[in-house]
Amino acid sequence: MAKLTIKQENFCNYYIETGNASEAYRRAYSCDKMKDETVNVQASKMLNNPKITLRVKQLQDVLQRRSDITKDEAIKELSAIVRSRVTDVLSAKGMTVRIKSIEELPDEVVACISSIKKIKGGIEVKFYDKIAAIDRLSKMLGWDKATKIDMQGSVPVKEWLSKFGGDEE
What we know:
The structure is a single chain. The chain is of the alpha+beta class. The chain has 2 domains: about 60 residues; about 70 residues, no CATH class. Helix content is about 50%, strand content about 10%. It contains 8 helices and 4 strands. β1 and β2 form a beta hairpin. The longest helix is centred in the middle third of the chain and has 18 residues. The mean pLDDT is about 85.
């Protein structure tokens, strides 16, 4: 691959970040004195440059590989959230409650924690929303498919029209 200039490489990265060629061009180049139309034309030229196109594709491929997640992985994560319990992160003995250290927790439990923060008088541990996880799982597994209801009946049109002052044609 031919080497890109620093500004071209920045353009590629900004384009991946924003998805907007004109915005990427503005961030990578000095455009203070350029009209919007000029920026748009220059950004379009950049995207039509084979070196730029190749680099953008490479960056997109890297992002795709990093973000690939299968349905099975999503179901596993959501299932862990549904099954998580407060007792996974703390232990109680009598009136004493002890929060386990992160190192003691299995990865699937750590993945269910949305935040941990120190509050007055202790520590607050928040889990991801179980109801939202159940809802998402239901959709993924097809449990919430629409139910077809066959309804039949008749509407007495003459009575309805006379009641509401409509004219019958």
